[in-house]
């Protein structure tokens, strides 16, 4: 393959084979194709219509591996399917090999650099990461099926395993994909969807499993863009009840994630382009009338029955007379593995003949004469009915009550839903142990502590029984009550900090909390429980970046509160704060956010709840900052500082100092800001395991360093500023605080690198900010990144492109009501207008910016706005404009001196020196610039100081 720069593409008519991007395209649209199948296309197109033998093909695509022709045929079929109506282009030469027909030409495409892909096969190092559960028992009778599924997974981008419940789709998928893990550098992940009741939660569940921290509304597209070019395999398990959402997600991944393979298990196919469907067959069963022991024992269904019975009863050894009964059982169960395992569990206790007799009686009405014509899930239901009837009534009641836990349960949770039945904790534990032994309940080994789950099919069955016995609302109410008490703290203010253990426990119960909330706000529910639970769980949604869900849940809870009931005041306040935070992160309506927080703070003041006041003010401070209301933001910061000292909370004091420093920077007081920010850094690091639930930013060291960098840079200490900006990023290493990373990039290195003329660093870090914010679906930070990108383009003289990006960012702010660093970016917009000859528009933008700076106290950028206005006025080429420009420069210089902003002084002095040289007043140009330049002690490699030095050398004394 060519090593030339650009994208190497083979083209023929409507088809393109892009070797750099590993894409097969039809009329420019990528066609889904698995990794190995694309390797076959590569071998064929590089041979330029020549014959490629089967041996050569297998050696190239599967080097060093023993591969049968059946595997090759699967992949050839995948290529033909991808070629669609042009499948005849791939010609088979019988007994010899294959040839790709057509006149293929080679092209080198210019444009963005192609993604860098690592080799398909992993040859060394640690095994790829995965979360696949261990297959404790050998998967019997599935060797051929597993091999076929492996071939499909390496040939197609989307493979769906379909079949009736209990057929073994999940086990087969895990067995097949686990074998292929070395082919996926970024690992394999199984996403369990059975517990979801809302299809809209499919993207967030996938994101959570993959460890993606996405802010704002989480969609299939935002998750796919976050995954990007990672080489991984994703198993979406139990999709049938959310099939449309899964199909949309799979289709989106196929389009946006070129190296992700999806394996779905579902009773219904996805029906999307590029999907390969494998219908999982039942296990083989002996034909009726065949009684020879050797004949019966060769069937996989019988082998499974015997193996599972032996596992449960060590002394079990089937006799010849038993085998006939076992064959009968397997036939009646249609070879469905789950049903056979239930039967084996009973055979370990009862005789095989007894089980066979009971089974025949139970299934007679369902299968006699026309069994194969019935829906196959009815066979599994019959198996469950029969097995359920064998349980004692106490275990039946326990089983159906346990169905209210979609996310699994502990012994305490199980005891809570059985409280009205007379069961104590000991009886519940005994009952669970019995249900585990009978394969109704499974031990959850994914975390610490004793926890159990009901398999999806069994839980659905048990829920039906719960309704039949008119116990659904009772059980759901007790479940909701239990989780309300588990999650809701007893003491006011206890939500301000959560330990790692507290947070992990709450995260694990998310599906149970969702179920509890759904019931609480139903017609039969108790809204009071739902309100309490929503308020208490809001910090968890925030930690998981499920801000859309947080917003919807809080809105629903608020609707349930009577506005004039005094007892509801505290809950309403907490819900308003949580909702405001969610709206803020998702860049919802700014005025609604302010209204919510204003009302919440009025309640907090009336209740004299200092923790709540600090929490509300911290979010309100952020809202004011991103609304451009910096004067109000400083007042909020001062109030937080007062509260922090009153309650003597070091975390809150540190946060208050950091916010005060930030506000002082915006007001143009860098020396005072430096003092506050350095006080933050003198505080010890926050002890591990504390997670802020009310404060906007809990990593104050990183935020303080980013802000300190700006304070130092304004005072002329460019090298120290760059050092602090880099240290602010280092503070976040080893953590997964992606939203904080966005904030630190925005306030720190992105700004400092731009201002000091380090274009390469600025370009890289701004791109990093935009990429992270886009991946998180954090519109607020994505917009901030685009503002910085537009400003950088203007600084580089790319005015038209910068103008386009800045206008788009301002349009987003105008639509939502937010104003991100309004004067600064309006100044950049003015320069963009001036650079494209739109002087009137430039002056209009500057008037807006300076009005905002004067109104909101955004003083730090005012000297630069005056300097920019002077430069725009000079472009008007009128004597009066020149006088007005000099007046702007003089005002800017005076203001910069008052602020102690040496960097602004330098820019103004440099502009004045250039003006005087252009006016022929060279003798007046040097002294003012030299007086400013000589006050610098570092940063002489930065762009402005280098420009000043060049000017001084060109204008000798």
TrEMBL record:
DNA-binding among the record's keywords?
A: yes
Q: What is this protein called?
A: Predicted ATPase
Q: Which UniProt keywords apply?
A: DNA-binding
Q: Which InterPro entries match?
A: HTH_77, OmpR/PhoB-type_DNA-bd, P-loop_NTPase, Sig_transdc_resp-reg_C-effctor, TPR-like_helical_dom_sf, WH-like_DNA-bd_sf
Highest taxon of the lineage: Bacteria
- Cite the GO molecular-function annotations of the record: DNA binding
> Has keyword DNA-binding?
yes
Q: Which organism is it from?
A: Bradyrhizobium erythrophlei
| Residues of the OmpR/PhoB-type domain | 6-102
One GO term (biological process): regulation of DNA-templated transcription
From the UniProt annotation, which stretches of this protein bind DNA? Answer: 6-102
């Amino acid at each position: 393959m060519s090593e030339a720069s650009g994208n190497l593409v083979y083209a023929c008519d409507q088809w393109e084979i892009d070797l750099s991007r590993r894409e097969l395209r039809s009329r420019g649209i990528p066609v889904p194709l698995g990794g190995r199948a694309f390797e076959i296309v590569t071998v064929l197109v590089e041979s330029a219509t020549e014959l490629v033998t089967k041996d050569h093909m297998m050696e190239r695509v599967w080097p060093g591996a023993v591969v049968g022709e059946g595997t090759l045929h699967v992949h050839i079929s995948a290529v033909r399917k991808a070629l669609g109506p042009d499948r005849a282009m791939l010609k088979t030469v019988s007994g010899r090999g294959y040839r790709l027909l057509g006149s293929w030409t080679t092209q080198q495409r210019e444009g963005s650099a192609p993604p860098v892909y690592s080799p398909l096969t992993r040859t060394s190092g640690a095994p790829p990461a995965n979360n696949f559960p261990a297959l404790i028992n050998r998967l019997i009778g599935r060797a051929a099926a597993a091999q076929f599924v492996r071939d499909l997974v390496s040939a197609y981008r989307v493979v769906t395993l379909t079949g009736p419940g209990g057929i073994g789709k999940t086990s087969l998928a895990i067995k097949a994909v686990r074998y292929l893990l070395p082919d996926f550098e970024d690992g394999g992940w199984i996403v369990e969807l059975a517990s979801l009741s809302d299809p809209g939660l499919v993207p967030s569940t996938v994101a959570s499993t993959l460890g993606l921290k996405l802010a704002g509304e989480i969609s299939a597209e935002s998750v796919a863009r976050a995954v990007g070019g990672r080489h991984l395999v994703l198993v979406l398990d139990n999709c049938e009840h959310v099939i449309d959402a899964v199909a949309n997600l799979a289709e989106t991944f196929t389009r946006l994630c070129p190296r992700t393979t999806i394996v779905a298990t579902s009773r219904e196919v996805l029906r999307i382009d590029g999907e390969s469907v494998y219908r999982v067959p039942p296990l083989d069963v002996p034909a009726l009338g065949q009684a020879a022991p050797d004949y019966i024992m060769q069937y996989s269904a019988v082998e499974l029955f015997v193996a599972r019975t032996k596992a449960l009863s060590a002394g079990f050894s089937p006799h010849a007379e038993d085998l006939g009964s076992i064959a009968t059982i397997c036939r009646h169960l249609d070879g469905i593995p789950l049903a056979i395992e239930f039967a084996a569990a009973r055979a370990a206790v009862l005789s095989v003949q007894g089980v066979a007799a009971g089974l025949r009686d139970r299934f007679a009405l369902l299968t006699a004469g026309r069994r194969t014509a019935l829906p196959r899930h009815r066979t599994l239901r019959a198996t469950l009915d029969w097995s359920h009837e064998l349980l004692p009534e106490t275990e039946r009641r326990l089983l159906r009550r346990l169905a209210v836990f979609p996310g699994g349960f502990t012994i305490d949770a199980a005891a809570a839903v059985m409280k009205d039945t007379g069961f104590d904790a000991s009886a519940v534990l005994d009952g669970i142990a019995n249900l585990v032994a009978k394969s109704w309940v499974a031990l959850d080994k994914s975390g610490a502590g004793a926890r159990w789950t009901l398999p999806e099919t069994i839980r659905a069955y048990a829920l039906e029984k719960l309704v039949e016995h008119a116990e659904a609302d009772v059980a759901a109410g007790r479940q909701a009550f239990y989780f309300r008490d588990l999650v809701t703290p007893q003491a006011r203010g206890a939500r301000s900090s959560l330990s790692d253990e507290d947070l992990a426990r709450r995260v694990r119960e998310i599906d149970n909390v969702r179920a509890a909330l759904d019931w609480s706000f139903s017609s039969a529910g108790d809204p009071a429980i739902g309100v309490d639970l929503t308020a208490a769980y809001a910090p968890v949604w925030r930690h998981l970046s499920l801000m859309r869900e947080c917003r919807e849940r809080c809105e629903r809870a608020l609707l349930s509160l009577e506005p004039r009931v005094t007892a509801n005041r505290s809950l309403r306040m907490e819900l308003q704060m949580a909702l405001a935070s969610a709206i803020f992160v998702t860049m919802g309506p700014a005025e609604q956010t302010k209204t919510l927080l204003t009302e919440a703070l009025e309640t907090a003041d009336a209740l004299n709840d200092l923790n709540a006041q600090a929490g509300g003010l911290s979010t309100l401070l952020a809202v004011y900052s991103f609304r451009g209301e910096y004067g109000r933001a400083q007042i909020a910061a001062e109030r937080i500082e007062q509260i922090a000292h009153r309650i003597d909370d070091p975390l809150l004091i540190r946060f208050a100092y950091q916010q005060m420093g930030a506000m002082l920077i915006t007001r143009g007081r860098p020396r005072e800001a430096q003092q506050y920010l350095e006080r933050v850094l003198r505080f010890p690091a926050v002890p591990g395991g504390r997670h802020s639930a009310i404060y906007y930013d809990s990593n104050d060291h990183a935020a303080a360093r980013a802000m300190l960098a700006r304070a130092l840079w304004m005072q002329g200490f460019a090298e120290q500023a760059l050092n602090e900006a880099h240290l602010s990023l280092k503070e976040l290493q080893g953590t997964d605080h992606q939203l904080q990373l966005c904030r630190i990039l925005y306030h720190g290195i992105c700004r400092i690198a731009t201002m000091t003329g380090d274009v390469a660093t600025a370009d890289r870090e701004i791109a990093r900010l935009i990429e992270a914010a886009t991946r998180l679906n954090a519109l607020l930070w994505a917009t901030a990144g685009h503002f910085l990108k537009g400003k950088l383009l203007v600084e580089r003289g790319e005015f038209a492109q910068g103008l386009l990006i800045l206008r788009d960012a301002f349009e987003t702010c105008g639509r939502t009501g937010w104003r991100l660093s309004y004067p600064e970016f309006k100044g950049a917009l003015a320069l963009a207008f001036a650079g494209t000859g739109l002087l009137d528009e430039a002056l209009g933008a500057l008037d807006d910016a300076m009005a905002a700076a004067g109104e909101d106290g955004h003083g730090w950028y005012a000297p630069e706005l005056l300097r920019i206005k002077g430069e725009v006025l000079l472009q008007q080429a009128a004597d009066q404009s020149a006088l007005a420009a000099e007046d702007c420069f003089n005002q800017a210089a005076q203001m910069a001196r008052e602020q102690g902003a040496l960097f602004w002084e330098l820019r103004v002095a440099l502009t004045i020196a250039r003006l005087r040289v252009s006016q022929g007043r060279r003798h007046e140009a040097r002294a003012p610039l030299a007086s400013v330049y000589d006050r610098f002690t570092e940063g002489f490699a930065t762009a402005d100081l280098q420009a000043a030095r060049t000017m001084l050398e060109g204008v000798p004394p």
